């Protein structure tokens, strides 16, 4: 159990509940889940398709709420998270726990009723992986937290595909691999220019325990694996030229930004413009890559 924080002095409202779900993170989760569903060779009825994506969103929100419940003490020590509902004392931890657990159960049960058992199982695994493996086990113990824990965020396209088809196939597994490999350079770029936050909270992120230059090298190495994974669906003839060309161009830009990060020698946040550029582009990269996948599949239909 994490150390408790001060009891709330302000009443929580609906905005605090929304903030618990990490809506910015959820937007990418929902989008990749939607793309996995739309890229599948089987079309769900619109109502069931909407319900499946809603379940993915609710599951992601539940995981975010449980993450903030467990990490309230860490969030209170970091400037970028200090205004979240729990460290800002707008909500008590028990309410956050009940909200997260209730949302988790509801999302999994609804997914099972609306689609199939396998999709519901994968959704449950993704929530438990993020909460128990990443948040509880890895986050405070190892610099590899984001490497292993990144699997939690890689589930949505696989869940979307399985919700439509009821089975796991090679293409959604490759989509899982893309996000899994993308997560470390994405978060390490962020951790470089907020290193002091993680150090203050005693979180063993890679820049804190291995140094800035080692982190930049790891970003470059992982970016190479992201590029390989991104073009793999085209290489295996699972997609057409639209996706293949988009994946190649986007990956070249991603690699160029990663090289700029590796070449940077600044040690202060003010000098980390390459890191900020890579972090910002990495989000656009994933959105554009998955959008190209859906467009490619639709054009081939």
Automatic annotation (TrEMBL):
What is this entry's stated membrane topology? Multi-pass membrane protein
User: What catalytic activity is recorded?
Assistant: heme b + (2E,6E)-farnesyl diphosphate + H2O = Fe(II)-heme o + diphosphate
Q: Does the keyword Transmembrane helix apply?
A: yes
Superkingdom of source? Bacteria
An MF annotation (GO) of this entry = protoheme IX farnesyltransferase activity
* E.C. no: 2.5.1.141
Localization: Cell membrane
The principal localisation class reads: membrane
Classification via Pfam families: UbiA
Q: What class of enzyme is it?
A: transferase
Keywords from UniProt, A to Z, are: Cell membrane, Heme biosynthesis, Membrane, Transferase, Transmembrane, Transmembrane helix
Q: In which pathway does it act?
A: Porphyrin-containing compound metabolism; heme O biosynthesis; heme O from protoheme: step 1/1
Transmembrane residue ranges: 25-44, 50-70, 96-114, 120-138, 145-164, 170-194, 215-236, 242-266, 278-295
The further comment given in this record reads: Carbon 2 of the heme B porphyrin ring is defined according to the Fischer nomenclature.
Q: What does the sequence similarity comment in the record state about its family?
A: Belongs to the UbiA prenyltransferase family. Protoheme IX farnesyltransferase subfamily.
Q: Which HAMAP family match?
A: CyoE_CtaB (MF_00154)
Purpose of the protein:
Converts heme B (protoheme IX) to heme O by substitution of the vinyl group on carbon 2 of heme B porphyrin ring with a hydroxyethyl farnesyl side group.
Name of the protein in its database record: Protoheme IX farnesyltransferase
Origin species: Sphingomonas telluris
Q: Which gene encodes it?
A: ctaB
């Amino acid at each position: 159990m994490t150390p408790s924080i001060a009891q709330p002095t302000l009443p929580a409202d609906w905005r605090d509940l929304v903030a618990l779900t990490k809506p910015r993170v959820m937007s990418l989760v929902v989008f990749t889940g939607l793309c996995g569903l739309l890229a599948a060779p089987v079309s769900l009825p619109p109502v069931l398709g909407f319900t499946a994506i809603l379940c993915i969103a609710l599951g992601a929100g539940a995981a975010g709420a449980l993450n903030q419940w467990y990490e309230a003490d860490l969030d209170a020590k970091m400037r970028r998270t200090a205004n979240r509902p729990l460290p800002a004392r707008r909500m008590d931890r028990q309410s956050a726990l009940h909200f997260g657990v209730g949302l988790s159960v509801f999302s999994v049960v609804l997914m099972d009723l609306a689609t199939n058992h396998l999709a519901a199982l994968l959704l449950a695994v993704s929530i438990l992986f993020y909460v128990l493996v990443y948040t509880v086990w890895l986050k405070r113990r190892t610099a590899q937290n984001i490497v292993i824990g990144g699997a939690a965020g890689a589930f949505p396209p696989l869940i979307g595909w399985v919700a439509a088809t009821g089975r796991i196939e090679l293409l959604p597994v490759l989509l899982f691999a893309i996000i899994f490999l993308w997560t470390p350079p994405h978060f390490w770029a962020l951790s470089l220019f907020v290193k002091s936050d993680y150090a203050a909270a005693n979180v063993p992120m890679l820049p804190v325990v291995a140094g800035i230059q080692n982190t930049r090298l790891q970003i470059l190495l992982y970016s190479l694996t992201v590029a390989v994974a991104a073009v793999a669906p085209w290489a295996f003839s699972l997609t057409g030229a639209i996706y293949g060309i988009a994946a190649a161009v986007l990956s070249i830009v991603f690699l160029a930004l990663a090289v700029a990060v590796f070449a940077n020698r600044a040690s202060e946040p003010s000098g980390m413009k390459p890191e900020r550029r890579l972090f910002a582009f990495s989000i656009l990269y994933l959105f554009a890559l998955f959008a190209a996948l859906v467009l490619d599949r639709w054009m081939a239909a």
